[in-house]
Amino acid sequence: MSLDRTDVDKIAHLARLQIEEQDAPEYAQNLSNILDLVDQMQAIDTTNVLPMAHPLDAVQRLRSDLVTEENQRELLQSVAPAVENGLFLVPKVIE
Amino acid sequence: MFDKTLAELAAGLKTGQFSSVELTQAYLARIKAEDTKYNSFISVTDDLALEQAAAADSLIAAGDAGTFTGLPIAHKDIFCTQGVRTSCASKMLDNFISPYNATVVDKFNQAGAVTLGKTNMDEFAMGSSNESSFYGPCKNPWNTDCVPGGSSGGSAAAVSAQLTPAATGSDTGGSIRQPAALCGITGLKPTYGRVSRYGMIAFASSLDQGGPMTKTAEDAALMLNVMAGFDKRDSTSADRDVPDYTADLTKPLDGLRIGLPKEFFSGDINADIAAQTQAAIKEFEKLGATVKEVSLPNTALSIPAYYIIAPAEASSNLSRFDGVRYGYRCEDPVDLEDLYKRSRGEGFGPEVKRRILVGAYALSEGFYDAYYNKAQQIRRLIRDDFTKVLSEVDVIMGPTTPHPAFKIGEKSSDPVAMYMEDIFTLSLNLAGLPGMSIPCGTVDGLPTGLQIIGDYFAEQKLLNVAHQFQLATDWHKQSPQGI
Amino acid sequence: MEWEAVIGLEIHAQLATKSKIFSGASTAFGAEPNTQACAVDLALPGTLPAFNEEALRMAVKFGLAVDAEIGRKSVFDRKNYFYPDLPKGYQTSQLFHPIVGIGHIDITLEDGTTKRIGVTRAHLEEDAGKSLHDEFPGMTGIDLNRAGTPLLEIVSEPDMRSAEEAVAYVRKVHSLVTSLGICDGNMSEGSFRCDCNVSVRPKGQEEYGTRTETKNINSFRFIEKAIVGEIERQIDLIEDGGRVIQATRLYDADKNETRSMRSKEEANDYRYFPCPDLLPIVIDDDYIDAIRQTLPELPDARKARFIEEYKLSEYDAMVLSADHNMAAYFEVIAKTAKDAKLAANWVMGELSKLLNQHDIDITNSPVSAEQLGGLLMRIKDDTISGKIAKQVFEVMWSEGGSADEIIESKGLKQVTDSGAIEQIVDEVIANNTPQVEQYVNAEPDKRGKMIGFFMGQVMKASQGKANPGQVQGVLKQKLDALVN
Question: What are the catalytic residues (chain B) (predicted)?
Answer without folding.
Answer: 76, 151, 175
